[in-house]
Amino acid sequence: MTASIPRDGGEVYRVGDYWLPDSDLHFRQILQGKSNYIEEHLLKSLDFVKSWEVAVDVGAHVGICSRMLAGKFKVVHAFEPALDTFECLWRNLEGCANVVHHQVALGEGEGRVHMEDDVSKPTRVGNTGARFVREGGDILMFALDSWGLQKVGFLKIDVEGYELRVLEGARETLLSCKPTVMIEVGKSPEDRYGLRTRAPIQFMEGLGMKEALRVKMDFVFAWQ
Fold first, then answer.
1. Range of the domain at 136
2. Is residue 201 part of a domain?
3. What is the CA 135 to chain-centroid distance, rounded?
4. Which of 88, 97, 130, 137 is most buried as measured by Cβ atoms within 10 A of its Cβ?
5. What confidence score (pLDDT) does residue 8 get?
6. Amino acid 37: pLDDT
7. Residue 1 within any structural domain of the chain
8. Residue 5 counted as domain residue
9. The domain that contains 23 carries what CATH number?
10. What is the pTM of this model?
11. Which residues of the chain have pLDDT under 70?
């Protein structure tokens, strides 16, 4: 697999050191220093990492986590399907030569999807990080195992309820590399995909992983 070539993702604007889509209202507050939960959660999860060769950021959004990971791992693979956020990710990681960008979705196998905005609550409107995938569309979807990555030490998954499908497509990578996994659990999997909320946790436990840390909706799993 190769990194995607960025296309025009629409209007963007800059907040501090980061570019954001013009439609985003949520992350401008985070980047203006009103909340540091992303960095806080990520740094706590890295305490359990054993290999610093390769990190994988699934649902990389505009690259906030990817940039942090780039300073700690030799190589980072950043996966972000939405065109406008991928455009920002590309810009935000311009100086990170060790990051490989992929404008694709990850799931249990090959397919095509599109992105939908979460408008279930007023607080979710304008949050480009709350988008989720739906079947059918012009965005390619693959399994993480398709890349045949080696020496993966850390896997972050934040895909708004689609986590189980990503894990199913990453089974061989998980078993062969045994990375630490930081995963968000609980974003409407029943309503959107008919999946049980705890299914990702049960999947990882079934592979032999154990919960090492929980910070709100972010779970960190390590190998026993």
1. 12-223
2. yes
3. 18
4. 88
5. 54
6. 75
7. no
8. no
9. 3.40.50.150
10. 0.92
11. 1-10, 33-36
